[in-house]
């Protein structure tokens, strides 16, 4: 067996199952889960039709690079969304969802023969970053977010000795779980560090189309273009249809950026066997070519968060995020319980599931920045999320009265 497998930590939802062992939720309350970030709005009918109308694609082996029409759909969308122009032949690739791409990209980039490589990732973070680093033969370094700065990552706290060993940096903007969006000044800092130390930046942007401000979140490629880096040196962005179009089961997304990195990633993926089905390619072209359903989806989230956030803000520290579909709430101090105890007691008393924030972070530099927080995924319909919020309010009030 690969000895590196032993370094992997249990996934947050496995830890959640262990935490809930022995809990019998009250039958008087229907179960409501705010734990998993799985989009639950209906899949648009035109995407379903595109899938069912292209079943002849089952008879063909797909090309790893995807059909030219698919790659052109990516570049058209990038131009529409970010006002940037990329070459569909050399600067984009289809992937089977951002998760598999983030993992396999690390296997492409990391050179374990160059003494003790590091992969820097935000903390809290999406656990795939950590697993990708470990199985590529690198060690993760956790850069903590700062609650005083809307949970922006404190890159200035990363020492030069770490940057010197860094081969890959994972960023997530809008962030999971905090919803923080990186401004242009932060991108400028990271590009300068990349130029100085030679590491690659992997920009996870799967939540980019769910936002609550008038201005859409800045993307990594967009930031590079604004700063005169139109070759996108050492930068790859990752995006997906899962959240944007409510098709997590379709496993469809793309990567874009530095042509040299795309070429290397294509070589890896050719051997890895990760080509996208022709049926999914056809449906993806349809999805990337339509913005109306995205606007409607975003409107639903905005209305939902506008209703739920004030309810919870009355009893705990929580605020509307910049983007994404999570609330990152602080466990009230007067409850005298940690985030895991909060989640277990809430399930036991009101049959509502939330994810302990400490499960989404690591103890680093003397603290776990997810401790005493819980992540709530507002992915269900508004009525169900509002009911969950009311139960959480009742739970907190019952223990602080």
TrEMBL record:
<dbReference type="InterPro" id="IPR050881">
    <property type="entry name" value="LL-DAP_aminotransferase"/>
</dbReference>
<dbReference type="InterPro" id="IPR015421">
    <property type="entry name" value="PyrdxlP-dep_Trfase_major"/>
</dbReference>
<keyword id="KW-0032">Aminotransferase</keyword>
<dbReference type="InterPro" id="IPR015424">
    <property type="entry name" value="PyrdxlP-dep_Trfase"/>
</dbReference>
<protein>
    <submittedName>
        <fullName>Succinyldiaminopimelate transaminase</fullName>
        <ecNumber>2.6.1.17</ecNumber>
    </submittedName>
</protein>
<dbReference type="InterPro" id="IPR004839">
    <property type="entry name" value="Aminotransferase_I/II_large"/>
</dbReference>
<feature type="domain" description="Aminotransferase class I/classII large">
    <location>
        <begin position="32"/>
        <end position="389"/>
    </location>
</feature>
<dbReference type="GO" id="GO:0009016">
    <property type="term" value="F:succinyldiaminopimelate transaminase activity"/>
</dbReference>
<keyword id="KW-0808">Transferase</keyword>
<dbReference type="InterPro" id="IPR019878">
    <property type="entry name" value="DapC_beta/gammaproteobac"/>
</dbReference>
<dbReference type="InterPro" id="IPR015422">
    <property type="entry name" value="PyrdxlP-dep_Trfase_small"/>
</dbReference>
<dbReference type="Pfam" id="PF00155">
    <property type="entry name" value="Aminotran_1_2"/>
</dbReference>
């Amino acid at each position: 067996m690969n000895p590196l497998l032993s370094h992997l930590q249990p996934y947050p939802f496995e830890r959640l199952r262990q935490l809930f062992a022995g809990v019998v939720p009250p039958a008087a309350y229907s179960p409501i889960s705010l734990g998993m970030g799985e989009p639950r709005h209906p899949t648009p009918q035109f995407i379903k039709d595109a899938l069912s109308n292209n079943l002849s694609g089952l008879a063909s082996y797909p090309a790893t690079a995807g059909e030219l029409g698919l790659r052109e759909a990516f570049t058209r969308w990038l131009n529409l969304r970010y006002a940037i122009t990329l070459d569909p032949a050399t600067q984009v690739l289809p992937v089977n969802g951002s998760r598999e791409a983030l993992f396999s990209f690390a296997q492409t980039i990391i050179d374990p023969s160059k003494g003790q490589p590091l992969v820097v990732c935000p903390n809290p973070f999406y656990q795939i970053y950590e697993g990708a680093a470990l199985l590529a033969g690198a060690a993760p370094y956790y850069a903590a977010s700062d609650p005083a700065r809307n949970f922006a990552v404190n890159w200035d706290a990363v020492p030069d000795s770490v940057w010197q060993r860094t081969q890959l940096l994972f960023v997530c903007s809008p962030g999971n779980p905090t919803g923080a969006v990186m401004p242009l000044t932060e991108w400028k800092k990271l590009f300068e560090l990349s130029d100085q130390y030679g590491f690659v930046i992997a920009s996870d942007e799967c939540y980019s189309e769910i936002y609550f401000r008038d201005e859409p979140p800045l993307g990594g490629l967009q930031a590079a273009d604004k700063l005169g880096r139109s070759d996108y040196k050492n930068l790859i962005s990752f995006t997906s249809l899962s959240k944007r179009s409510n098709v997590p089961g379709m496993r469809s997304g793309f990567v874009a950026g530095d042509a040299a990195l795309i070429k290397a990633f294509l070589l890896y993926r050719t051997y890895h066997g990760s080509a996208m089905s022709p049926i999914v390619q056809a449906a993806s072209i349809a999805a990337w070519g339509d913005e109306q359903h995205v606007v409607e989806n975003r409107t639903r989230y905005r209305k939902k968060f506008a209703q739920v956030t004030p309810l919870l803000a009355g009893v705990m520290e929580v605020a509307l995020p910049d983007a994404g579909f999570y609330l990152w709430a602080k466990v009230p101090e007067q409850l005298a319980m940690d985030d895991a105890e909060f989640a277990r007691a809430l399930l036991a008393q009101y049959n509502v599931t939330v994810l302990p924030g400490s499960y989404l972070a690591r103890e680093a530099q003397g603290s776990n920045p997810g401790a005493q927080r819980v992540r709530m995924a507002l992915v269900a319909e508004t009525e169900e999320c509002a009911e969950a919020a009311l139960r959480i309010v009742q739970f907190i009030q019952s223990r602080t009265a």
